Amino acid sequence: MKKEYKTEEEFLKDYDPKAFDQLSMTADIILISVSDQEQTNYRKTSKKMMSILLVKRDDFPYKGKWCLPGGFLNPKTETLAECAKNVLKRETNLSNIYLEQLYTYDGIDRDPRTRVVSTSYIALVDKNRLTDMINPNACWFDVVLLEEKNNIVDITLDNGVDTIHLSIKKELREKTTDRYRFVALKNDDLAFDHALVILAGIERLRNKLNYTDIVFNMMPEYFTLGELQQVYEVILNKKLLDPAFRRIIANKVVKTKKMKTGEGHRPSALFKYKGK
Fold this sequence. Notes:
Layout: H1 8-14, E1 24-36, E2 48-56, E3 66-67, E4 70-72, H2 80-92, E5 98-105, E6 116-124, E7 138-149, E8 152-158, E9 163-174, E10 179-187, H3 194-209, H4 225-236, H5 242-249, E11 253-260, E12 268-273
Parallel strand pairs: 1-6
Antiparallel strand pairs: 1-2, 1-4, 2-3, 2-7, 5-6, 7-8, 8-9, 9-10, 11-12
């Protein structure tokens, strides 16, 4: 017979938290940056590359495989956002960078240890701010290939030593909202379902590029319009016509009195983000 309680205090006194199935929660972060590729010829304009920070696992499960920075939520001391910030602090020594909740991943078998639900976040940074060393088991991977054909996205990540090939299928889930679910077709080197998080993070960044000022979280304080255009182009993975690009950023930047010199080029005017 079900016991009737008169007060909440009586109920909580008898309450047994073990009566419910337990699960663990994590925060996983896709940290993205755009920076110059190493250039041997100083007369050539540096090519921009989009990079993602990955961490090599040193323990089972998936020992030796790469994954996104992440960590388990402490249910007594952390919110999910605090957990994500603590992960970033641990991996990059940064505590004040752009952070936005992405999606929640709750596949029943996404972690072989136990039932783990992960809330993913996208974080953006200008690599020039990384004055401290990142953790020894963390490494930046350049996105050297990002192509979509017939709703299949191929991504290649490279850090100069390891190369990761991903192939992800996009299946239309809701026609009215143009929302997709992602299915990994090829993923030999990334742990868990982090291939899906990477594609989701890149697509979120691309979409917000069109209607927000999110890109400036990856820019230094001063930059040329050419450098800014390269960042747009590497994220969108397409060439932009100069007049169209200038219209896009016309109300976002302000020209300064500073000039960029050297590197074998004619001096260029430096701009800064208008919102700061």
